[in-house]
Specification:
The complex is a heterodimer of chains A (201) and B (333). Chain A is mainly beta. Chain A is built from 2 helices and 14 strands; from the N terminus they run ββββββββββββαββα. In chain A, the strands form 3 sheets. In chain A, strands 1, 2, 3, 5, 8 and 10 form a 6-stranded antiparallel beta sheet that branches. In chain A, strands 4, 6, 7, 9, 11 and 12 form a 6-stranded mixed beta sheet that branches. In chain A, a hairpin with a 3-residue loop joins strand 2 and strand 3. Chain B folds into 2 domains: 216 residues; 105 residues, no CATH class. Helices cover 25% and strands 35% of the residues of chain B. In chain B, the strands form 5 sheets. In chain B, strands 2-4-17-9-12 form a 5-stranded antiparallel beta sheet, covered by helices on one side. In chain B, strands 3-18-8-14 form a 4-stranded antiparallel beta sheet, with no helix packed on it. Chain B is rod-shaped, with a radius of gyration of 32 Å. The two termini of chain B are 64 Å apart. Classes of the chains: A mainly beta (201), B alpha+beta (333). Chains A and B meet through strand 2, strand 4, strand 5, strand 6 and strand 7 of A and helix 1, strand 1, strand 2, strand 5 and strand 15 of B. Strand 12 of chain A pairs parallel with strand 20 of chain B, so a sheet runs across the interface.
């Protein structure tokens, strides 16, 4: 899931003085085409710019663009597409001037919200054990945009197995819940479906 | 019998749920890589958080003024045309107790706020990375004209919409006209950190909730410029940059000869000697066409913001030294 990568000139990189992150394949953004109920995988590249080891933690946080113009984004919250994303390796140790490709999966829900959903993939430094907490923490984040292909359904279609199971459930419920006539003789169902049952038997 | 039937109904319902779940899991098993082809100029955007002398900011000492100005610097190096936001959040301030912190004595993050001086943002060394397009003309005379006409061509040559080599043109920064920059620096927001972050020093706070959403305050933004004057300014800058340059230095040689061949016709071109072709190329007069937004492929530049943190110390706070953590996040939009 994670492969070592050299430190070639990064493309579309967002960096601190120590480390950086960017979508792989030279892409400008993480734009994921998702389908309801399906899983997509993608990756980012993380690298160490320094001549000493750096540990970086990757996480996904809620992110929303407030629509008042470029540069207006809010981070935080647990909603949106944040819960769709799983990072294969949330903590990575980078040797001096080394980089790694870290994959993540996007599990789209069976009911997709309309439009584009967003989250942010955040990279932050992990302090060495025993080091005092920092007064200033510098992080970088890449926005991720998730949307279904234009014109496609936002709801996952049911497979044939689900339809068969639904039909079976309907029959079982009718059988089990239909009222019965109580009396001295053998019990007889009074519903038409109960009659049908006897005929089938 | 009734109990058996109810049980059967429950089993049936469970089977249906399992079947539905199975559909979801089946879908989830098929993963695919999503790739998007883009014109990639490469480049980077780097965040620096510094004191006012340009040194990395490592401490927050509010001192007796209970204010702490600092500098946020974002450096674009041949960066693609995408916006950014620099967001800050703040932990509570915890009373220092020896080598650790007294998490029972805090100054809430809501007592820390951000504001700005009268000139809150600046931009330096801004350049546009563009892919120019040229029209070219040439009026040929003398023996070369004879060669052209003999081959069935014309002595007036016109090439249109020839794609030029990528150019980096420096732009003049006028703080009163920031909208005309490729990336428009946006003044940060003022306000307090109503909800604390639990990063840094706050990570060890025993009252840290399982999940939290800290208040974020944007201290610098960058939007993709779309003002019409931007493209006018870029054209003027590129014209100044390439003034007097021959066509052969502005356009890839293969592209240029291909455009020339197309303009004068294949048979005419093929009838010319390499020397004559070179003479034609050398005589072409390039004219820069108006820029489209798509030709502005990247930019370089430095964008600065000068936020200042202020702390309002409650009268009930015990005397002592308090420390907290400022979290600065550069978001690539």
């Amino acid at each position: 899931m994670v492969a070592a990568a050299g430190l070639a000139a990064p493309a579309h990189a967002i960096e601190t003085a120590e480390f950086g992150v960017a979508p792989t394949d030279g892409r400008q953004h993480l734009k994921e085409e998702v389908r309801p109920g399906r899983t997509t995988t993608d990756s980012v590249r993380v690298w160490n710019k320094t001549d000493h080891p750096v540990s970086v933690r990757l996480s996904v946080v809620g992110a929303s663009l407030d629509g008042t113009g470029a540069g207006s984004v809010r981070l935080g919250g647990t909603g949106g597409a944040m819960s769709w994303v799983r990072i294969s390796q949330p903590a990575i140790d980078l040797a001096p001037h080394a980089g790694q490709i870290v994959s993540f999966s996007v599990h789209a829900p069976r009911e997709l919200p309309p439009g584009t959903s967003t989250a942010a993939l955040v990279a932050e430094p992990i302090l060495p054990i025993g080091q005092q907490p920092a007064a200033v923490v510098q992080r970088v984040a890449v926005m991720a945009y998730f949307a279904a292909p234009a014109g496609s359904s936002l709801t996952a279609a049911l497979g044939w197995l689900a339809w068969v199971a639904a039909a079976a459930l309907a029959l079982v419920l009718v059988y089990a819940l239909a009222p019965v006539r109580r009396g001295a003789g053998p019990r007889r169902r009074v519903s038409r479906l109960a009659t049908l049952r006897f005929r089938v038997q | 019998m009734m109990r058996f039937r109810r049980c059967l109904a429950g089993v049936g319902a469970g089977a249906v749920l399992a079947a539905f779940a199975g559909v979801g899991m089946g879908g989830g098993a098929s993963a695919s890589q999503v790739t998007v082809a883009v014109n990639n100029p490469g480049g980077s955007r780097t965040l620096f958080v510094e004191d006012l002398l340009g040194q990395p900011l490592t401490t927050l000492d509010f001192g007796t003024t209970r204010a702490h100005p600092f500098r946020v610097r974002v450096v674009d190096t041949t960066m693609d045309r995408s916006g950014f936001a620099i967001l800050t959040s703040m932990s509570n301030l915890y009373k220092v107790s020896g080598n650790s912190f007294d998490f029972g004595n805090t100054i809430p993050s809501g007592n820390v706020s951000v504001d700005y001086p009268t000139t809150p943002v600046n931009a330096l060394s801004v350049a546009a990375i563009v892919e120019p397009v040229f029209n070219m003309t040439e009026t040929v005379t003398g023996p070369l004209c004879t060669a052209l006409t003999t081959a069935g061509g014309s002595c007036s040559i016109a090439l249109s919409a020839v794609n030029g080599l990528r150019q980096t043109a420096s732009l003049t920064v006028d703080l009163s006209k920031l909208l005309t920059l490729p990336i428009v620096p946006q003044v940060g927001d003022s306000g307090s950190f109503a909800s604390p972050d639990f990063n840094g020093i706050g990570a060890n706070d025993p009252s840290k909730p399982a999940s939290f959403t800290p208040t974020t305050v944007r201290v610098l933004g960058g939007g993709v410029g779309s003002d019409p004057a931007l493209l006018t300014d870029v054209k003027a800058a590129v014209q100044s940059l390439i003034a007097g340059s021959p066509a052969s230095s502005l356009v890839d040689s293969g592209t240029l000869t291909g455009a020339l061949r197309s303009a004068i016709g294949g048979p005419v071109y093929d009838a010319l000697t390499p020397t004559e072709v070179q003479q034609l190329v050398d005589g072409l007069q390039p004219t820069l066409t108006d820029f489209l937004a798509s030709q502005l492929v990247a930019q370089s530049g430095t964008y600065l913001s000068y936020p200042s943190l202020h702390v309002n110390v409650p009268t009930t706070a015990p005397a002592g030294n308090y420390q907290g953590t400022l979290v600065v996040t550069a978001v690539q939009l």
